[in-house]
Design goal:
Layout lengths: L8 H7 L16 H8 L4 H8 L3 H7 L2 H12 L11 H9 L13 E12 L4 E4 L14 H8 L1 E4 L5 E10 L13 E8 L6 H4 L5 E9 L5 E8 L6 H4 L17 E5 L2 E7 L6 E9 L6 E10 L1
Antiparallel strand pairs: 1-4, 2-3, 2-7, 4-5, 5-11, 6-10, 7-9, 8-9, 10-11
Length: 301
């Protein structure tokens, strides 16, 4: 028989763990830094759903810095200068499904599509009815003279910051037929804050005609552009004039659009026609007189 293995009591007692009687530190289930990082991957609807779960998430996710990040991310624009409204409201205004015809002239509206967002870094805009880069900017002293000269013009006192651009399909102004297929397209651009201003909501701010122009011959397409004059010669703006990269082929009748950091343009190929009637409208703020919205409408003659 082999010898029995004897285990020392001292060894056995040392093997037993000793637990401290000190209280366990409190642990929070919510880490603000973690959820702030997670919020960067959520859209506005998801942010609101999560914020509605409890008070902690509401106070964390309704922080304006989170909504600013979401707004700039989804609009795909660089950082913006100071804004007058909370970013959560600006996000809702931008992505709530509203457009300028939602508030007025609903009976004339047919369809629309969101083009995207761009920025005005300067208070000067260049508007054109064709997408051929001119060798120089117009120098005539009035908008109408500029349009009569080469179908483009410069507007001053533009409200700087982020602008949103939509393409609208609208019934022609003189048509009252519900069966009208729509013979007018509108490049519709507005400042990000426009829908939150009382002057716009109550209708005291309206669109004013600043110039018009007729092309009394067949045209292959209806096109238009809005550029920040400061970035007229920038590489990003040059992409607008590279028509092969985004304009549809001659038998493609679907509207096409292009947006860069500081410009936007549209193009729709046309079938047989007698020309276009083009109008330029602006809306000005009643407080500062700054231009806060621009429309370029193109109607078949």
């Amino acid at each position: 028989m082999g010898k029995r293995l004897r285990v020392s009591k001292s060894i056995c007692s040392c093997a037993s763990p000793r637990f401290s009687s000190a209280p366990i530190a409190s642990f929070s289930r919510h880490d603000m830094d973690i959820w702030t990082e997670i919020a960067k991957y959520l859209d506005g609807k998801s942010l609101m759903m999560l914020a509605a779960t409890n008070k902690w998430f509401f106070s964390t996710l309704m922080d304006d810095s989170i909504w600013k990040f979401a707004c700039l991310r989804d609009l795909q624009v660089p950082d913006s200068p100071e804004v007058r409204f909370k970013w959560s409201k600006l996000y809702a205004s931008a992505f709530g499904g509203s457009h300028s015809y939602s508030f007025r002239q609903k009976e004339k509206h047919i369809d629309w599509m969101r083009i995207g967002a761009f920025s005005f870094d300067s208070p000067d805009a260049f508007l054109m009815e064709n997408l051929i880069c001119p060798p120089k900017l117009p120098t005539e002293d009035t908008v109408q003279k500029m349009l009569d000269s080469d179908g483009s013009c410069i507007l001053h006192n533009i409200k700087t910051g982020i602008w949103i651009a939509d393409l609208q399909l609208v019934r022609c102004p003189v048509c009252d037929l519900n069966t009208c297929d729509g013979t007018m397209q509108v490049l519709d651009a507005r400042h990000l804050e426009l829908f939150l201003n009382d002057g716009f909501v109550n209708g005291s701010w309206g669109y004013e005609l600043v110039g018009s122009h007729d092309i009394k011959r067949h045209v292959n397409s209806a096109s238009g552009g809005i550029l920040d004059v400061k970035h007229f010669k920038s590489p990003y703006t040059a992409d607008l004039f590279n028509l092969k990269s985004w304009v549809g082929k001659s038998n493609d009748w679907q509207p096409k659009a292009m947006v860069t950091y500081n410009a936007v343009a549209i193009n729709t190929n046309l079938q047989d026609n007698d020309g276009l009637h083009i109008k330029y409208h602006v809306m000005m703020s009643g407080d500062t007189g700054e231009v806060v919205a621009i429309r370029i409408s193109q109607q078949l003659l």
